Structure formats: C-alpha cells, structure tokens
C-alpha cells in the first residue's frame, strides 16, 4: 500500500467553530495534528482546508495545505477534492482521513487503521473499549457494533450508533473517527447520496455500510483525546503543555 494522510479542516466546524486554530502549548491545534501525522512515517501528509486562514497556519508550521471549496458537505468530500489536486496520477492507493481535532493522537495508531485493508476490507477504522457507564451513555461517543473473537485485532464493523449497542453482556466499542480508504472506495463513497440511516443517526459512515462497502474495525487500547467541548480543550492544553 502507498498511503497518503489527509486532514480535513474548516473554521466553521461544529460544535466549536474555529477550534482547529485554538492555541495549544503555543501552536494551533491543526499544527499538533499535522506533526502527529508526520511522525507516523506512513506517507505524505496534507491538510485539506476550507479557508485561507487555516492554510496559512498550516504553512507557517511547515505543512502542506490544499484549499478546497468551503461549501463541501463533509470532511470526506474535502479530502477527496484535495486528493484530486495532490495526486492526479493516482500514485497513492490508500487515503487515511485523520480528523483535525485529535491533537494528542498516538502516531502509532495511524498504522493500525491500515490493518483492515490488509485483510481485504474496503475501509478501515479504529475502535477502543468503552470503560465507563458515562462513556457508554454519552451521545457524543459513537459506538461501533463489532465482535472480536479471542485475540482477533480486526473485526467487521456491522453498525454505528450514538446509543449503547449492542444489547446484552459484553464489551462496547468506542468508535474513533479515523479512516483508511481504498482509493476506489473513497471515490464511490463521496459519489453516493446521504443514506437513510446516515441521516437518522447523523453518522456518515452508515452510508458506506448501506451501500455494501465492507468496513473493518481495528482495535486499539484506548481512544485518543478529542476536542469537542471547552473542557476537552482545557484538558488537552494541560497534557500537551506539560510535555512541551
């Protein structure tokens, strides 16, 4: 595989507009995510930006930025648009979509998202065990319905929900919004209209499942710290500030 890592970033992202430029230990959040992606050593890295301000911040910190149409509906559409500009000759057959609000992501985790593709899946993603009732019940924590047998590290992702599923005894899995797409799978995905379950759950990945694309989940020990709330941002600032 010849991966390329693309990070979609826009100032209008909800629920915290402008968070990709939030200062963390003297650098904007997007610069931290960029550095983590570069440290993975998996392939070239670029930020698919919606606004010139984000592109300028990326370039000030030594990264490559690609401006895309600010009206694109999703991060997946944004990285696909950037891919057409960066790689028209299709040298890269795998695209890793890394969210711009994961400034503390372990670079080693990005290699894990390739595991499902090595086993023949169209799309790979990551999950981590849910460790508390609060996490299980939080709508902001997306759950992946999957089952790992024995020491299995990759399992089929059968469904995603904001509710604690599946029912019954057993582990629940926290979905981590990082994806590895085969190039053809990404092209097909962004060409599809929003699906019924996607619109109901507000989860884009359900479109892929409804269209018959095979999505595999690789498990990691714990979910990375994401920035969805002011408390999340304060927490990440404490952690990364202490390391700087």
What does this 3D model show about the protein?
- This protein is an alpha/beta fold.
- It has a single domain, classed as Alpha-Beta Complex (Spore Coat Polysaccharide Biosynthesis Protein SpsA, Chain A), CATH 3.90.550.
- It is 34% helix and 22% strand.
- The protein is built from 10 helices and 12 strands.
- The chain has helices at residues 29-40, 52-60, 75-86, 107-112, 115-118, 133-137, 183-191, 196-201, 205-210, 230-243, and strands spanning 3-9, 23-24, 27-28, 45-49, 65-67, 94-97, 123-129, 143-145, 154-156, 159-161, 173-182, 215-219.
- Strands 1, 4, 5, 6, 7, 8, 9, 10, 11 and 12 form a 10-stranded mixed β-sheet that branches. The protein has a two-stranded antiparallel ribbon with strand order 2-3.
- β4 (45-49), α2 (52-60) and β5 form a beta-alpha-beta unit.
- The longest helix is centred in the last third of the chain and has 14 residues, at 230-243.
- It is globular and about 50 Å long.
Number of domains: 1
> Biggest sheet, open or closed, and with what strands and sense?
10 strands, mixed
The N- to C-terminal Cα distance equals: 34 Å
Hey, roughly how much beta strand do the residues contain? 15-25%
Low-pLDDT stretches: none
Number of strands: 12
Pattern of helices and strands: EEEHEHEHEHHEHEEEEHHHEH
Residue-averaged pLDDT: 93
Q: Give the CATH topology.
A: Spore Coat Polysaccharide Biosynthesis Protein SpsA, Chain A
What is the CA-based Rg, rounded?
A: 17 Å
CATH superfamily, please?
Spore Coat Polysaccharide Biosynthesis Protein SpsA, Chain A
- Tell me roughly what share of residues is in helical segments: 25-40%
Q: Give me the CATH architecture, please.
A: Alpha-Beta Complex
Give the CATH level 1 class. Answer: Alpha Beta
The secondary structure category is alpha/beta
H/I helix tally:
10
């Amino acid at each position: 595989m010849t991966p390329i890592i693309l990070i979609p970033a826009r100032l209008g992202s909800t629920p915290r507009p402008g968070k990709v430029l939030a200062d963390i230990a003297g650098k904007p959040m997007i610069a931290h995510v960029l550095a983590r992606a570069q440290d993975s050593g998996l392939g070239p890295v670029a930020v698919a930006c919606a606004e010139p301000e984000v592109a300028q911040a990326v370039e000030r910190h030594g990264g490559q930025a690609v401006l895309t149409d600010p009206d694109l509906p999703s991060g997946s559409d944004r990285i696909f648009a950037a891919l057409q500009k960066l790689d028209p000759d299709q040298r890269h057959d795998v695209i890793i979509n890394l969210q711009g609000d994961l400034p503390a992501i372990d670079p080693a985790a990005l290699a894990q998202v390739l595991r499902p593709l090595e086993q023949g899946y169209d799309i790979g993603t990551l999950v981590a065990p849910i460790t508390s009732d609060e996490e299980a019940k939080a709508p902001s924590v997306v759950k992946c319905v999957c089952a790992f047998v024995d020491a299995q590290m990759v399992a089929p992702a059968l469904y995603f929900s904001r509710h604690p599923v599946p029912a019954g005894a057993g582990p629940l899995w926290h979905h981590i919004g990082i994806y590895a797409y085969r190039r053809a799978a990404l092209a097909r995905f962004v060409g599809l209209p929003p699906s019924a379950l996607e619109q109901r759950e507000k989860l884009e990945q359900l479109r892929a499942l409804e269209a018959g694309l095979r999505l595999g989940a690789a498990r990691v020990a714990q979910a990375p710290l994401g920035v969805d709330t002011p408390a999340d941002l304060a927490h990440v600032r404490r952690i990364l500030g202490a390391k700087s």
